[in-house]
Write a structure and sequence with these properties.
single chain, 2 domains, mainly alpha, about 260 residues, 8 helices
């Protein structure tokens, strides 16, 4: 009995210290806040869908009231009250349903295209934030911005491109597996050191490494565009810069003027 009370006291103290740390770090972020454009787009489409359902419900109520008025030669005060409460009920219903479907971890890697993978991963990550320590939450939000940039770059490469396969492995498997492994650890054990670091520190370090790798892949994919922009900038400077002499025989922007 005494041992049970001691364990409960330690658990309460541990959770209390965690709460203090969270408050000092600015508190936990709301799971509803979007971390990237992909997840925000999914939520916007859901809101538009709700608005469409609500509009259809209003139209149905209006038609029903009009038909009842014609048949009954007026609906009277009772009919107006019923119609009013029907509108209120529809508003409450479609303000909450249908909800955005949060993908399961196992479904993330099954996304067929990069844009879908990014959006679904962002949405999944948003709902994992309450279980993460504040430093990890900040990294997750940074990853959301990185995923937007990565998804844009992947939109210009083929699905069989090595970078696309690496992204699926990194974003669709390693990232969610890391967070899942941390989430399975009981809350009162997440602040105890093991192998030189606490689970809080380990998940933060792992997410930092994943963030760096996402940035690395994005930079690799963007190298072609960066080189192309640099070549065209040199051409414009050569063709239209100060001291340039207009010529009908000027090289095209697809040629590097330094080679001439």
């Amino acid at each position: 009995m005494a041992e049970d009370l001691t364990q409960q006291s330690e658990r309460i103290l541990t959770e209390g210290r965690a709460l203090v740390r969270d408050n000092q770090a600015g508190g936990r972020h709301r799971a509803s806040a979007s971390i990237g454009r992909g997840s925000a787009s999914l939520k916007t489409r859901n809101l538009l869908r709700r608005a469409g359902f609500f509009g259809a419900a209003l139209l149905t109520i209006l038609v029903a009231v009009s038909a009842a008025g014609l048949v009954l030669n007026g609906i009277g005060f009772a009919g107006v009250v019923i119609a009013f409460f029907a509108v209120i009920a529809a508003a409450i219903l479609f303000a909450n349903f249908p909800k955005v479907k949060v993908p399961k971890r196992a479904d993330l890697a099954k996304s067929q295209d990069a844009k879908t993978l990014v959006a679904r991963t962002e949405l999944w990550l948003e709902h994992q934030r309450p279980a993460l320590p504040p430093p990890a939450v900040r990294i997750v939000e940074d990853i959301g911005v990185q995923l937007d940039a990565l998804g844009k770059q992947l939109g210009h490469v083929e699905a069989r491109h090595p970078a696309a396969a690496e992204t699926r492995k990194l974003v669709g498997e390693l990232l969610p597996e890391t967070i899942d492994a941390y989430a399975r650890i009981p809350a009162h054990l997440r602040h105890e050191k093991r192998v030189g670091a606490t689970p809080d520190e380990q998940v933060t370090e792992s997410l930092t490494k994943i963030s760096r790798e996402i940035d690395h892949v994005t930079r690799q994919l963007a190298e072609g565009s960066l080189d192309d922009l640099a070549i065209r900038t040199r051409y414009l400077d050569y063709r239209y810069g100060e001291g340039a002499v207009p010529s009908l025989a000027a090289p095209s922007p697809d040629q590097d003027p330094e080679k001439n």
